[in-house]
Amino acid sequence: MMDGLLGIFRHKFVVKLFALVGATVLWFFVMSDQNPVMDSSVSVPVTFIGAPDRARVTPSVSDIKVKLRGPRSVFAAARRDEIKAILDLSDKEPGTHHLSVQTLLPQGLEVVSLKPEYVDVLIDPLIQKRRSLRIIPSGTVGPGFTVSRMTPETDSVFIDGPETVVNSVTQVIGYVPLSGDRTTDFDVRVTLSAMDEDGRSVSDVTLTPEDVSVHVQLARGLSKKVVDIKPVFEGTPAAGYAVTESRTEPARLEIAGDAATLEKITTLETEPISIAGLSASARRVVNLALPDGVTVTNRTVTVAVSVARK
């Protein structure tokens, strides 16, 4: 009799065990069907940690495409700002760095892929430099008059901005507006612009001051003459190199003075320009070497010199 009862118990235990296993499998099946594991992609902005003070940080890309995997319920509960793509700049020196992208995610999500996985980052220190000011006339004054001198309230300005941008500024210029009704000396405020060696405006800098007052002196009864400008060089280029071409901007300039003085002048020379050790083409802003009694509206010119291997 006891053996019969044990048989029934064993039989029912096996049935119950199979029922429990089946119920567990069914539960997992139902739950996975209700809350499946899924993939999803999102683009998030690059976040920096450890960025240095007084520097501009520029990544090669601004957003990272992050492919994630996790339960649907976790995706539903996650906020977009909880997903971060991080670049660690701790102890990084100025210059360009090739950095791996790190992530910070809500619990339950994992990264499948990152595009891109690495980002180039330029750390550009913020600096200040002083540059000379170039004043250029625009237009003409009244009949019988000429501009004898233009005097700005300062001859230089401060330039603030990222180092690579500030270093690209070769001159700061201001255009003085002239008009045909001008017959007496006058003062005018002139807006300043930062320019690179190719004469293009450089916008990503701050000038101090942004504008200046310029005193314009007029002269009457002076003769005028247009002459060529001749660049004067000193030194020799790097070994194996030679000057192949040079030109001035402008190539010709109007000068003023008494008739006897101007009659003797056929060209205006620049102050000496050093080309010692030069191995690449360059541009220089230089002053003119003016003879006594001769005036120009602006005594600076730009000289472009080309060198090549012999």
Walk me through this protein's architecture.
The protein is of the alpha+beta class and 310 residues long. It has four helices and 22 strands. The strands form four sheets. Strands 2, 5, 8, 9, 10, 11, 12, 13 and 14 form a nine-stranded mixed sheet that branches. A hairpin with an 8-residue loop joins β11 (171-177) and β12 (186-195). The chain is elongated, with a radius of gyration of 37 Å. The termini are far apart.
Low-confidence residue ranges: 25-32
Q: Roughly how much helix do the residues carry, as a percent range?
A: 10-25%
The best one-word shape is elongated
Question: In percent terms, what proportion of residues is strand?
Answer: over 45%
Can you tag this structure with a few keywords?
elongated; alpha+beta; nine-stranded mixed beta sheet; single chain; 310 residues
Short description:
With 310 residues, the protein is an alpha+beta fold.
How do the helices and strands line up, and which of them pair or pack?
Blueprint: H1 2-34, E1 37-49, E2 55-59, E3 63-71, H2 72-77, E4 84-88, E5 95-100, E6 102-104, E7 110-115, E8 118-138, E9 145-152, E10 156-162, H3 163-166, E11 171-177, E12 186-195, E13 206-208, E14 211-220, E15 223-230, E16 233-234, E17 241-249, E18 252-257, H4 259-263, E19 267-270, E20 273-274, E21 282-289, E22 300-309
